[in-house]
Fold this sequence. Notes:
By secondary structure, this protein is an alpha+beta fold. Helix content is 45%, strand content 13%. The chain starts with 5 loop residues before the first helix and ends in a 5-residue tail after the last strand.
Amino acid sequence: MSTCQTPVKAYRIFEELTKENIISGDFGSTYVGAFESREAFARKRLDGIIPDDSSVLKHYINYNLYAKDIFPYEYVFVDGHVFEKYTYL
């Protein structure tokens, strides 16, 4: 997928998810980004939480299981794009 098509595709997915009441909010507050997989997103999310000096701890984390826990309750993954289900103002 080319990078110039990514925002257009993401916005089309956003429109569908909004229409189906799967997510609420505007595109800017719900769109998280493009990721290869749910697990890749889970890894990125936890990398922002776990300090860099805790690299040993990261070996004990099951990113696939964590991804199963946060999808579909907090996030939606469609065609490589992640959206936050509910945004709080």
